[in-house]
Design brief:
The complex is a heterodimer of chains A (301) and B (329).
Chain A (H helix, E strand, L loop, with lengths): L1 E6 L8 H15 L3 E6 L7 H7 L4 E5 L6 H13 L3 E5 L16 E4 L2 E2 H7 L4 E3 L21 E3 L7 H13 L4 E3 L10 H11 L1 E4 L9 E2 L3 H9 L1 E4 L11 H7 L4 H13 L6 H10 L5 H12 L1
Parallel strand pairs in A: 1-2, 1-3, 3-4, 4-5, 5-7, 8-9, 10-12
Antiparallel strand pairs in A: 6-11
Helix pairs in contact in A: 1-11, 5-9
Chain B lengths: L1 E5 L7 H15 L3 E6 L13 E4 L8 E9 L9 E10 L9 H12 L4 E4 L2 H10 L5 E3 L19 E6 L9 H12 L4 E7 L11 E4 L6 H6 L3 E4 L8 H8 L3 E5 L15 E3 L4 H12 L2 H16 L3 H15 L5
Parallel strand pairs in B: 1-2, 1-4, 2-3, 4-5, 5-6, 6-7, 8-9, 8-11, 9-10, 11-12, 12-13
Classes of the chains: A alpha/beta (301), B alpha/beta (329).
């Protein structure tokens, strides 16, 4: 399948959606598809000309892109004379206004809960969680240990919440924080897996959207579990994936316990039985981006 | 056959050189070839064996040929050159480079069933057949001169990446190739060279620039590099890739049109979707980190180039001309 994915960065740097697309397009390519990226912020050709120059089977975009009236207009116009599938990813809540749904066949989303349930009454929205990259995110016990690492975009409206989790650990130099809101601003996506694997202990938490009844397992959830020893907060979605042993070993609902677990793993006071790691790895089977993209393609053919 | 080519220019861009190679090969096969251009000087440094002339004024006495091959928009140019059969050499989606009336005129030409279209790739032929509803199109491909473009056996301590194309040039999109090479450099110690007719202010992103290199110098530059990175949005064929392959320099590129017909991912090249910077970086990192992959791709690239000599193009041209003249079924 020849796929045109719309993006705002050709290389993941600033936007979480670019990282997701990076892994998804790598998986799609591994599955034998050709993924072109069209940067809507810096188009070399107008979109309609680009669509005319190549024969695509699918346009894949972030639903947020359709907030742009011109893009919405172009796609509506194009679909009139070229029958082409359009699939959107709903990565950010709340969803854009009603009219965007006219140009998409269906949307995929890693979210579950109140907002998506309500949208799904009138729209075709399918649950497609985020995942890990089976090539880039792997354990590597040969790497010299680095100590706990948190990598994430914690800038902006999420800053306060991230601070509540990370500030103390960062200040006492228990956790190395990397991301736009931290002293270390950026980590190349090709390095992330190696840094995670070297870190061993990988703190992760989810944000308050969950308090409003919308749930999502973030990329860090999948990738940290795949590369090292995750220390998660607790989300009801984890209960769909993990048994009690795994939940007790890798999830800590209370923030203080969460922080203490990171400290104790770092100091060596806590350790994780190898059997738990084997069980953790087993729980991740079928949750790579390859599996996600296989599912997406299955929906399309 | 008496064959005439009408060029829009004589300066040494890839598309024009392809015509010169075609002309030389057709002469070698016993045909008479004249190349017409708005300027009467053939490109410097190219041993063109055909007669090279200025396009005569429309009022001049008519000259008759068996076959007249128009290159790009020259079909619309009035002149005193007549032929039993007119052909249009389609080397790229040229209509995307112009707009308004010029674009409409080109698209009308492509749709004209009385004009025999010679496409350099199946991708272009498909465009003519499907978008312009014209079935009078034949694929002639492109070739490589094995006498000029050949590999050597030098092994380098540090890998060298070559960027090819003018900078800036939006369609050639060299800026993205520079980004790819420099993202790779964040992970691996590599040298970055650039080759183009003009290359503006590369700064520290490029270690050496070869501006306006002659046809004689280019094979040597390819031979000294391990990978050729090109990130054009659209390539009618991508002949530099074929020449680089012949020199043992492996293409790292977007699947931008015609090149996908001979650049095959993980077989003789590294190919990813257009605009997919991160995947191109990934493939280059794999290449740099895996000696067996490098050796396999290089050997296959050389083999691919050897299988595409200009004589093969000339055979297809002869066949297309004969068919156009009604001499062959």
């Amino acid at each position: 399948m020849k796929i045109l994915a719309l993006c705002e960065e050709s290389y993941p740097v600033m936007l979480p959606a670019s990282y997701v697309l990076f892994h998804q397009s790598m998986s799609l390519e591994r599955l034998g598809h050709e993924v072109h990226l069209f940067n809507i912020r810096k188009p070399v050709l107008p979109l309609l000309e680009y669509l005319d120059a190549y024969e695509f089977d699918l346009i894949y975009l972030d639903l947020e892109h359709l907030r742009s009236h011109s893009l919405l207009h172009y796609l509506k116009q194009f679909r009139v004379y070229e029958p082409m599938r359009v699939v959107a990813a709903l990565l950010k809540l709340p969803a854009p206004p009603e009219q965007v749904w006219d140009v998409v066949d269906f949307a995929v989303t890693p979210w579950k809960g109140k907002t998506v349930d309500s949208l799904a009454r009138a729209r075709d929205i399918r649950y497609l969680p985020l995942g890990y990259n089976p090539v880039l995110h792997v354990r590597n016990p040969d790497l010299p240990p680095l100590g706990p690492v948190f990598v994430g975009n914690t800038a902006g409206d999420r800053e306060q919440e991230a601070e509540a989790y990370l500030k103390a650990l960062r200040e006492e130099r228990t956790v190395l924080c990397i991301g736009p809101g931290h002293e270390q601003k950026y980590l190349d996506p090709f390095m992330l897996g190696r840094v995670y694997a070297a870190a061993r202990c990988l703190p992760n938490f989810h944000y308050a959207a969950e308090a409003g009844g919308d749930l999502m397992l973030n990329e860090r959830f999948w990738q940290s579990a795949r590369c090292g020893i995750p220390v998660n907060d607790r989300s009801p979605l984890m209960e769909e994936l993990w048994n009690d042993t795994l939940l007790e070993t890798f999830c800590f609902a209370d923030r203080q316990y969460w922080q203490d677990r990171v400290r104790r793993l770092n100091s060596g006071a806590d350790h994780v039985y190898p059997e738990a790691i084997v069980e953790l790895d087993r729980s991740l089977a079928g949750h790579s981006y390859d599996d996600r993209m296989r599912q997406l393609i299955q929906w399309l053919v | 056959m008496d064959i005439a080519y009408v060029l829009p220019t004589s300066w040494a861009c890839g598309g024009i050189h392809a015509v010169y190679y075609q002309a030389n090969e057709l002469i070698a096969r016993g045909h008479g070839v004249t190349v017409f251009s708005p300027v009467a000087e053939a490109a410097e440094g190219f041993p063109l064996k055909a007669q090279f002339r200025t396009i005569p004024a429309p009022s001049a006495a008519a000259e008759q040929f068996d076959v007249l091959v128009h290159v790009r928009e020259m079909y619309r140019m009035p002149g005193a050159i007549c032929a039993r059969r007119n052909f249009l050499l389609l080397q790229d989606k040229d209509h995307l480079l112009v707009s308004g009336a010029k674009r409409s005129a080109l698209l009308r030409d492509y749709a004209d069933p009385s004009l025999n279209i010679l496409a350099v790739s199946e991708w272009l032929a498909q465009f003519v057949r499907e978008k312009c509803a014209n079935n009078n199109v034949q694929i002639i491909g492109n070739g490589v001169d094995a006498g000029r473009y050949f590999p050597d056996e030098v092994r380098r301590e540090r890998m060298r990446l070559l960027i090819e194309g003018d900078f800036p040039d939006p369609m050639r999109n060299v800026i993205e190739a520079i980004e790819v090479a420099n993202r790779v450099r964040q992970h691996q110690r590599v040298q970055i060279w650039a080759l183009g007719r003009r290359f503006a202010t590369p700064g520290k992103t490029v270690d050496a620039v070869f501006e306006n290199a002659s046809e004689d110098q280019i094979p040597g530059i390819y031979r000294q590099c391990d990978l050729l990175i090109k990130t054009a949005i659209i390539e009618g064929f991508g002949r530099p890739f074929l020449e680089a392959m012949a020199c043992g320099c492996v293409p790292a590129t977007y699947a931008s049109g015609g090149l996908a017909e001979f650049c095959r991912h993980d077989e003789n090249s590294l190919v990813t979707g257009v605009g997919n910077v991160s995947l191109l970086v990934w493939h280059i990192l794999r290449f740099l980190g895996d000696e067996r992959l490098r050796d396999r791709l290089r050997a296959n690239a050389i083999q691919t180039a050897r299988s595409m000599p200009w004589s093969r193009v000339a055979e297809k041209l002869e066949s297309a001309f004969r068919r156009g003249l009604g001499e062959e079924a």
